[in-house]
Amino acid sequence: MYSDLKDQVAVITGSSRGIGRAIAERLAQEQMKVIINYHSNQQEAQEVVEQIEQHGGQAVAVQGDVSQEDDVQNLLHTALQTFGKLDIWINNAGVEKYIPTEKMTLAEWQKVIDINLNGLFLGSMTAIRYFLQHNQIGNVINVSSVHERIPWPGFTNYAVSKSGGKMFTQTIALEYAKRKIRVNSIAPGAINTPINAEKLADAANQKETIALIPMERIGKPEEVAAAAAWLASKESSYVTGATIFVDGGMTLYPAFAEGKG
Ligand code: NAD
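# nicotinamide-adenine-dinucleotide complex -> structure
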């Protein structure tokens, strides 16, 4: 537990399920007040709010598409209207879809870039502008992926969005360090969430994925949320522009594990 997080306010995009939900629930356990952003499934978001409230926490569900500037502004607006301030902004919403590059249309390319990269820009910019206007210490956390580093055929737009997100994170971390705004990324490996549920439900696919993970297991959303809580807290006060890999060692070139090469 991080006592400094009590009564702080966080916006978490795409938090009605998966990693975003786990982050929201963890921050609520830390007694933070949280904005649960959802794109289309209101019931899912409402369930997260109820779960948090049942444990004595405070949360509000807000619809919004992270690729739309007005919707992103509305997330901040709701945080201010409901809880009176903003302390931490977490860009978590993201999408991926397997499409070989030669078959990908411009619209399919654009959709992933719009959500994963432009959404990152809109969310970060909205939060940073608020922190600057209020001369406030700020904290932005971006949920990236091991694919900010590992190329991923069939997911070109996704890998580009995440590697672009890495440079975006580092650049704004540098741009605003003097203004006491920290910006960091968390890069999950294979985590058990709806984004890959179908793939991991297939035993052969799951085996193939586990073969890429030195720790030989799929990660849990709560394990990513633990990194988010640390980055949100003062315990990470000297960390900015960093990527924390939460990947069971996936980025350690597992093919070399037995001294090959
Ligand atoms: P998920 O599909 O369970 O959750 C993604 C969330 O983003 C959903 O709630 C969805 O509604 C929301 N979302 C999608 N488009 C949106 C939009 N336009 N506006 C607002 N919200 C939108 O997936 P997840 O695994 O929880 O993914 C969360 C983040 O973690 C993503 O950025 C993803 O790229 C990243 N990630 C996941 C894994 C993994 O293995 N699960 C690995 C690496 C990175």
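# post-check
The radius of gyration is 18 Å.
The chain has a mean pLDDT of 97.
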